Amino acid sequence: MYMSGSGSILRAEMISNPTDLPYEIDGSFHVSPSGLAHWRPILEQLGVPFREMENIERKAQLAGVPFQIELQSSGIVREEALFQAFAAHLGLPFDAEIAPESLFLPEGKGLEALRLPYGTGPVIALKDRGRTTYLVAPERLDISAMQRFLKQHNDIASCIRIVPPTVLRNALRHRAKESLARMAVNGLFEAMPEFSARNVLNAWQGFALGSVGAILVMLVMLAPSSALIGLHLLLSVLFLACVLLRVAVSQEARQPSPPTSLTAMRPDEMPVYTVLVALYREAEVVPDLLVALGRLVWPRSKLEIKLVCESDDHETLAAIRAQQLRSYIEVIEVPPCGPRTKPKALSFALPLATGEFVVLFDAEDRPHPFQLVEAWERFRSESDDLACLQAPLVITNKGESWIASMFAFEYAALFRGILPWLAKRGLVLPLGGTSNHFRRAVLERVGGWDPCNVTEDADLGLRLARMGYKTGTISLPTYEDAPATARIWLPQRTRWFKGWMQTWLVHMRDVPRLYRELGRTSFLITQILTLGMWISALAYIGFPISAGTMLTIMAIQGDFLSHYTALLALDIVNVVFGHGAFLALGWRALPKTEQQGLWWHMLCIPFYWLLLSAAAWRALWQLYRCPHAWEKTPHRPSRWKTREVQRRKPGPNPTMVGSSSPIASSSRPA
User: Fold this and answer.
1) Domains assigned to the chain
2) Cα–Cα distance between 372 and 46 in angstroms, integer?
3) What is the pLDDT of residues 302-335, one digit of tens each?
């Protein structure tokens, strides 16, 4: 606990009997948090029926948490009303608001207090002409010890104020926002600059790029035909490598197997799980988000949800504040400092997480209710070097437009085909942008998210592999809606292409080291999934142009057996087999119920790949002009129903009664 200020320190040795203190100080002794017997008079004043108190006590015993923690997470009493009644019960003043600038404690201690599970403990506020006042946010409180303490130490009791824990956390977070922002923006760059995308190119990469460009220009001027043929062959080989990867995966891709049957678990064995959700201009989807999070099956007393918003996003903040949120939901406001990216916001919030495991969701996500349970089962059944688990993403609005349909087809190939195929072989796995489950300690150890990389997911997956950690996949999905128009789809895909190129440039700064850390196969996979896919998209629009040019040259020269014929044949093979491999992988990854419309997808592939090529060229321009700009994808409330499987339970309820319940005033599970 932090009860120290300028020239005024409250320590255990100042008290004749330290066991009278209601808190553990410096780990020197232990107190037992009060149960129902001591909380009953307070709850009766608030009109809580005794049967509800007994229900809360039973849940607390099952979850292995103090009665007070289960009481606060239940939402049966508003936090402010509960602690106001508690203050009255003890005869102490109650403060519903705190001026952050009045808090008096070292900056580092404030951050440390915010990391304490289930609360922050008491701190000092300096107010009223320099008078020191102790602000107490009583989490895991021993009420009897508190009462004895107040009777024996009237001089100190006169300086104590009771405050709600949420109010104190908000004040501490406000005081620490500059430190958190500095850590979010500079943390990775200062700790591991070789993994930061702050600089697009390092010295040797800039030199190499300039040299290659100069050599290419010189070759085109001296031997234009040979230079263009060589470049054409290089692009064709990269394109073919991507095709061969899809072919290899499609040979093993099958319909997704039924979800793993979940075993019954003891809630008291389950750890605290942190859910991070980054929101920006998402006011419309806030109600749907709260409903989706309310369906998650996990003991509410061991769940912490952090809604991470930009402080100048007033509409989203207003939409969240319109809800009466439970005590385990925290709204984190990120200062509007550059770069304005999702990974910067997540990096700001990560030091405030206390869960043993962390999962990341997007604002529009509808995760399967048992997804956290499946992830935790996998984590506890495998070794500690399993750092991350990726849940599949499933598109539910594929009938809205042809772009949404192709997006769903593409996602099936990636999340039900390529990623499980890579995970099965222990290869490097580029993460999707959401539904990543992490061991928090490992996530912090590898530096968290890069605030300057606009595909922070792929970069983090590669960094985990380089540092010796494994990434796996699970089966229970997260449901999303795809962009339904080219106007929305194009900026999103541009950002992805730009981020993949950022990721490739960052990790190729030391090629021998990358090869050693990843191994030969993962090194090749990295080249295909970052550079290869991006270059293939750039090259695709050139194939019809080059084919037309070569046919024209051959017609003019009257020679249809020249080297142009071989290049044209290679282009045709690439395009035909590329379309076929894309189609085969997506089709085999889809369940039978979704395999209809195969011919429609076949007809759409050329148009969709032309859009991909346009996005890749747009990304190349942005990489030069604005490498860290984040183009926001707008979302709207979903009009498309998720599958019935989202509501089915794949096994016994592992967290007993109340593990899946509303988390806000208007969030009601269907």
Assistant:
1) 4-31+78-175 (no CATH), 177-670 (3.90.550.10)
2) 34
3) 999 999 999 999 999 999 999 989 989 999 999 9
